[in-house]
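Hi there,

I know you've been waiting on this one. I reran it after we fixed the sequence typo, so this is the corrected version. Both the input and the resulting structure follow.
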Amino acid sequence: DDGPEICEGFVNGYLVTYQLGDAFRILEAWEKDFPQDPQPLVFRAAFSAKTDSWTAAVGYLRQAMALAPQRDDIQRELANGLLNLRETAEAEKLFKQLLKSHPEDPELLVGWVQILLERGNADEARSSLNRILQTHPQNFVALRTLGQLELNDGHTDEAVRYLEMAVKLKSYDTEVRYTLGTAFQKMKRSAEAREQFDFVAKSQEALQRVDQLTSRVRVKNDDLEARFEIAELLREYGEPKDRLLWLRSIVALDPSYQP
């Protein structure tokens, strides 16, 4: 039966253009017609994670894994979700299992570092991060985490070096910007610290507005003004690919739209 594949194609298409109402209607029909298919739950989990609704995301992933316990991709997402909820014991079991099959996977290794830090094994975590960066020097999470570790240990020069490298990769990430601001503050570089803290405050306001506008779009799919405002807010405070998708959604709905 190719029904699930057809549903997946439609959902992907709707999500790419942020036609959220249509996407969720297809998901509901998909779940009703194919209750043993875990993929609708995976989609719901991904959307929940995107909006930082980690409790919901983990709930969907638990259901998905019960339907398809052999799928590594579901295990991986569940492990990351559990880390975000700080449910370390369960996450640790999943990471151990995944690393047996993928011992050099940098994303899994970075996840394992988070487990080590939760367990208080900072020295082992630092060694692991250095090994990851030897083979993957632009791993954002590894750079950010190592910068945080160096800052915690009072090595502010080293912390700034790693954190500035991370900011170059993802300038919109508020966690790394805040940590960099804290490092500058400790170094008495007040103006530079203020710049980072100001960015974090503005970003939080912008992303709250994005959440409000996204809710508007779910109610009124053709609200092009809301879609354009989201894209403009994401210009500085979001992932470039997300901004591009919102702009594409406007073109898909009305190619002649002028803001």
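Quick highlight: The first helix runs from residue 3 to 16.

Best,
R. S.
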